[in-house]
Amino acid sequence: MDRDDGPVSNGWKSIYGNKVSGDEDKPTDVSETAAATETNKTSYPSRVAASNRSAASSVPSAQAPQSETARTTAVPVVGRRKPRVLLWSFLIALGLVLSMVAGVLFYLWNGLRPTSTSATPVQITISSGMRAKKVAEVLEQNGLIRSAFLFSGWLKLQGEGSRFQAGVYELTPGMTRDQIVAKLNNGEIMAAATIHFTIPEGFTVQQIAARLAETAGVNKAKFLEAAGQPAQWTGSMWTKTLPTDNNLRFPLEGYLFPETYEMKRGSTEADIINRMLSELDHKLDQLPEDWQSTLEERGLTVHQLLTIASLVEREVVVDDERPIVASVIQNRLKKKMPLQIDATIQYLLDKQKERLLEVDLKVDSPYNTYLRAGLPPGPIASPSFKSIEAALFPEQTDYLYYVTKKDGTNTHLFAVTYKQHQKNIQLSEKNVKK
User: Fold this and answer.
1) Where is this site: Important for catalytic activity (predicted)?
2) Angle (nearest 5°) at CA 297 between 294 and 299
3) Taking a C-beta distance cutoff of 8 angstroms, is the pair 116, 174 a contact?
């Protein structure tokens, strides 16, 4: 479009024709046109805008000019890929985390589940003071759990392990964690192989040795040897007060308490002796609290108390008569009379005789209470608790004699004088004739 006050334009070149607007008769150079076209194809996008403007100039000036933007050819915008990459990264990370969690859960489940079931039980030993971690290791070593590490951690979380009891347990592979813990907490230990034996009241050391050899498989000779070695006696405090008297046939006579015992199989002779000695201390502790004061008031030692009790044990069968016979012994000792107790002679003979002969009463021994006054050197048997009580607390009587009634009641006739005693002997003989 020409302006009156401006220079005259030669016109714009159209990229769609070979002529220049305003000068149609002027020939156009084809090569120039082609070059311009090629330049427009390869130039920067601004060239495209310029071409668009050239094309717009070919429109007659009478028409209103069109918006440059509206006439510009649209260029497609390439979409961004970043959101999709982030999504895939998140999904991959999530998958890795889930895989790790699943792996950990499987590890925990597999490590804490019961082991393969087996019908063969397993024995384990839990020592006193053993920590829960060590217990777990013992269980793993014996195939009762899969992982000691996980099991001990589970025990800690559950607050278990502090109540486990020592002992030998029999557990079966395949048991659950709760079953194992319950058994250890309750102390359901195995019953160890044991030996049972009963020592009757009034038995001597030699009789005890024979009984043990018969019922418990104990070596009799070794038992008697151990009974003569004070260094092996650790079961009773009272063995330390034993008199050093060479006249004692067996130093432990009367100290091995008669009772029914249960001990581990394989216990030594010394073990058995000490167990019986400890039972004596246990029984003496059941006496009244002032029993030692009573003993001192009477001027007796524990050794003498057991000696009197052993005499009562071998002379009396009926419990009610034990304190009475103990009073006869006490009265005779006070008068310094020979005790003349048949049981002391029987002890020297090493076997029970139904009837003692005159020759038996003349055996030269400190244990012969027919020839010697006072108590024998030591006990002649293992007394019962009732005999010990009777020796400690005898009846208050004036009796100096007693004789068996021989009527089958195992009771006695008591007398204060010798004359009365003779009459009782006659009565006893009449009972035999009947």
Assistant:
1) 315
2) 110
3) yes
Rg of the chain over all Cα atoms, to the nearest angstrom: 58
Q: Which domain range does residue 20 map to?
A: 10-58
Q: Please report how the helices 342-349 and 302-315 are oriented relative to each other, as an axis angle in degrees rounded to 10.
A: 90
Strand partners, 413: 403
> Sign of torsion, CA 304 328 257 406?
positive
- How many Å apart are CA 201 and CA 390, to the nearest integer? 15
Domain match, 179 and 198 both: no
Number of domains making up the chain: 4
Per-residue confidence band for 432, with pLDDT thresholds at 50, 70 and 90: confident
Helix (H) or strand (E) holding 45: helix 45-57
Q: How many CA atoms within 13 Å lie on the side-chain side of 338?
A: 12
- pLDDT tens digits, 295-313: 999 999 999 999 999 999 9
Token readout for 133 is 């971690």
Name the one residue in this structure whose structure tokens are 């589940």: 113
- Is the separation of the CB atoms in 297 and 384 below 8 Å? no
Tell me, what CATH number does 146's domain have? 3.30.1490.480
Entry pTM: 0.62
Same domain for 280 and 344 = no
Is 244 in the same domain as 278?
yes
Q: What is the Cα–Cα distance from 287 to 291, expressed in whole angstroms?
A: 6
The 8-class DSSP code of residue 61 comes to T
Helix (H, G, I), strand (E, B) or coil at 262: strand
Shared-domain flag, residues 233 and 206: yes
Residue 290 placed within a domain = no
Which residue type does 141 have? Q
Decide if pLDDT at 1 tops 70: no
